[in-house]
Design goal:
The structure is a single chain. The chain is of the alpha+beta class. The chain has three domains: about 5-70; about 75-160, no CATH class; about 170-280, no CATH class. It is about 45% helix and about 20% strand. The protein has eleven helices and 13 strands. The protein has helices at about 25-35, 55-70, 75-85, 105-115, 135-150, 155-165, 170-180, 220-225, 245-250, 260-270, 275-309, and strands at about 10, 20, 40-45, 50, 95, 100, 120, 125-130, 180-185, 195-200, 205-210, 235-245, 270. The strands form three sheets. It has a five-stranded antiparallel beta sheet. It has a four-stranded antiparallel beta sheet with strand order 1-2-4-3, covered by helices on one side. A four-stranded antiparallel beta sheet has the order 5-6-8-7, with no helix packed on it. Helix 4 packs antiparallel against helix 5 (about 135-150). The protein starts with 7 loop residues before the first strand and ends with a helix.
Length: about 300
């Protein structure tokens, strides 16, 4: 991947003049960008930083040119030399035009590789591609990546399932509650229907209904410890029925400026998401979308192959 191709700037759509800038996530790069463009705001739906102003495109292009001048244009060659001198030897890594990382799916692996500057997912080859200029960042994270990959090999997962102890009462209760998509909320302080909130155990959800009748056996939930907010002396609870929000609903959810405190979460059992919780929920929803598309594409290809035969 060429360094220049990692930066993108385009005019923003809408009535407000401005431009959108996109580039690979790197903490220092983002800091320098925000130091230069104080009024820039991240737009999740459009996947870029919005900079207002009629001359925004030109200003961003000047900044990109300065960043490219500052970057070491021989970084890939130097990184390749460093790799040859001290290679990373692993069944999960292949050296070619860039470094190709292929592992079983693991959230730990994904998070570690996202933290490597200029690493990118190649959906066609189903591998992560890391340029040689990022070899030292990859090397620092490689023990975590390799350990997580080994733990997620099919044989290792089968062995852990065989050794797993039978689920306890709390786990069985929680699985049943997840299937029913219900959650106890205080009768006197229920969440607003149709708005995204966070709840214990299930993350960001959207409530669609709340029972009128209170729960009679709420002490059972307190006994097995499924829900940390449920207390027999807190007042009557009723079941609220939830569903997962879609990407659009999650994108348009406005996060609270400051995270809600633990005491408030435990008192109510639900709370509005902060920025980190919103970002994590969006990431999970997009992963689910990609998995669904992949399954549909595989089914379609299998059906076409069967038809041709």
């Amino acid at each position: 991947m060429e360094i220049a191709s990692a930066f993108e700037v385009r005019p923003a759509e809408g009535d407000r003049p401005g431009a959108l800038a996109a580039f690979p996530y790197d903490r220092e790069l983002v800091r320098r960008f925000r130091d230069t463009f104080r009024r820039a705001r991240w737009r999740e739906a459009e996947g870029g930083w919005f900079v207002p102003g009629t001359r925004a495109v030109a200003r961003i292009e000047v900044w990109i040119a300065a960043e490219l001048d500052a970057l070491d244009r021989h970084a890939d060659a130097k990184g390749r030399d460093a790799f040859v001198f001290d290679p990373l030897e692993s069944a999960y890594l292949t050296a070619g035009q860039d470094l190709e990382v292929r592992t079983p799916y693991s959230r730990t692996v994904v998070e570690a590789l996202r933290a490597v500057p200029f690493a990118r997912w190649d959906p066609d080859a189903r591998i992560w591609r890391v340029p040689y200029r990022s070899i030292e960042d990859l090397r620092r994270r490689w023990p975590i990546i390799e350990e997580a990959a080994r733990r997620n090999e099919p044989e290792a997962k089968r062995q852990r399932r065989a050794e797993r102890v039978p689920p306890d009462e709390a786990a069985l209760t929680l699985m049943a509650e997840r299937r029913r998509r219900r959650y106890p909320v205080l009768v006197g302080d229920p969440p607003l229907l149709g708005e995204v909130v966070c709840i214990f155990r299930f993350g960001a959800v959207l409530f669609e209904a709340v029972d009128i009748e209170p729960i009679e056996e709420i002490a059972g939930f307190e006994r097995v410890g499924v829900y940390p907010h449920v207390r027999d002396d807190a007042g009557p609870y009723a079941f609220g029925y939830w569903r997962l929000p879609d990407v659009r609903e999650m994108t348009w959810t406005r996060p609270v400026p400051e995270p809600v405190g633990g005491r408030e979460k435990t008192r109510r059992g639900w709370w509005p998401p902060d920025q980190d919780e919103r970002q994590e929920a969006l990431r999970k929803l997009r992963e689910g979308q990609r998995s669904q598309r992949t399954r549909e594409e595989r089914k379609s290809r299998a059906a076409e192959a069967a038809h041709e035969n």
